[in-house]
Amino acid sequence: MADPMALEQQVCFPLYEAMRAMTAAYRPKLEALGLTYPQYLVMLTLWERDERTVGDLSTALALDSGTLSPLLKRLAAAGLVERRRSAADERRVEIRLTERGRDMRDRACDIPAQMAEATGLSVDELVALRDTLRRITRALNHSEES
């Protein structure tokens, strides 16, 4: 019988290894754009829907504002986004893409397909994996709240 405490029996370790490998595979593609992986996630979110509040981005990316704010400051310093206080509510900070940030989308549009190909998985396998990972995340978040 396999030892339940053996590293190779754990689910967490292959997830950790896969995350590290995925991030490493993204690195050269994103360096060409001048982005880190977390910055890329912010840009993906804004390319999907521009003009979001920091709170909205925080929710979409499951990041706290202490982690997100420095990312947004660096993206603003790079000229990719603008940060503004809301005219309606000064407590809210609104983020919008600059023209340079919008144009970067065209330079990044091949990255998802390149990364999918790099995995060696079919489209159906990738979709199933994504859906499974989302179910795991929901279940773990739910058990944390209970």
Q: Which characteristics define this entry?
A:
3-stranded antiparallel β-sheet, 146 residues, Arc Repressor Mutant, subunit A, mainly alpha
Task: Describe the 3D structure.
It is built from 7 helices and 3 strands; from the N terminus they run ααβααββααα. With about 150 residues, the chain is mainly α. It has a domain at about 35-105: Orthogonal Bundle (Arc Repressor Mutant, subunit A). Strand 2 and strand 3 (about 95) form a beta hairpin.
Quick synopsis:
The protein has 146 residues and is mainly alpha-helical. Helix content is 65%, strand content 8%.
- Tally of extended strands? 3
Topology-level CATH name of the domain at 36-103: Arc Repressor Mutant, subunit A
Radius of gyration: 18 Å
**Low-confidence spans:** none
The CATH fourth-level homologous superfamily of the domain at 36-103: Winged helix-like DNA-binding domain superfamily/Winged helix DNA-binding domain
Q: What's the rounded overall pLDDT mean? A: 95
**What is the correct CATH architecture of the domain at 36-103?**
Orthogonal Bundle
Overall SS class: mainly alpha
Main pleated-sheet profile:
3 strands, antiparallel
Which CATH class of the domain at 36-103 applies here? Mainly Alpha
Order of helices and strands: HHEHHEEHHH
Distance between the termini: 32 Å
